[in-house]
Inverse folding.
């Protein structure tokens, strides 16, 4: 939290993967994760590395490459099943979220959606569980979270409550919903 309290930011990305039935792949983070262990979250979320391939800004290419890399690392999804050009960039969000007092996130988060049927082989060091869900099931998860203290990552909560249902209803029109110029401060 020391760097976060100084106002320092880092880049992140969040991927929302939908199958051909329009169901969202949800994951529960592994218990071993440093930030937000065992929390439920979107399909994949992480950070671009500070390497040439992942810092390229044009067409969000660096964040796309990072997303493809982490989809394989966390969920065992082969890169050819999630081609870079199919990762639809929607927008960026800026948020701050402490985790346990020592760790937390202060990020500019690049948000991507992809619709693909993929083979999964989750990495148990990264992912505790996965499940494809409908919109109604996600609404129930969020309702249960407030009643039963189910843990949901803060970025996932912000994206769901602000954007996700509109995007989900328009999976066939994602390029029209792209907002590359805005960083939404949530």
């Amino acid at each position: 939290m020391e760097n976060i309290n100084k106002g320092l930011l880092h880049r992140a990305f969040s991927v929302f993967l939908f199958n051909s039935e329009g169901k969202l792949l949800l994951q529960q983070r592994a218990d071993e994760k440093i930030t937000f262990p065992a929390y439920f979250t979107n399909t994949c979320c992480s950070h671009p590395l500070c390497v040439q391939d992942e810092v390229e800004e044009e067409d969000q290419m660096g964040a796309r490459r990072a997303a493809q890399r982490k989809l394989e690392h966390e969920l065992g999804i082969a890169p050819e099943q999630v081609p870079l050009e199919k990762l639809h960039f929607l927008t960026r969000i800026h948020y701050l979220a402490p985790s346990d007092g020592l760790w937390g996130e202060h990020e500019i988060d690049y948000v991507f959606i992809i619709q693909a049927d993929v083979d999964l082989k989750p990495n148990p060091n990264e992912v505790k569980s996965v499940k494809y869900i409908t919109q109604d099931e996600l609404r129930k998860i969020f309702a249960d979270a407030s009643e039963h203290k189910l843990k949901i990552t803060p970025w996932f909560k912000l994206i769901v409550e602000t954007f996700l249902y509109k995007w989900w209803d328009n999976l066939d029109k994602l390029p029209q919903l792209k907002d590359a110029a805005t960083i939404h401060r949530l």
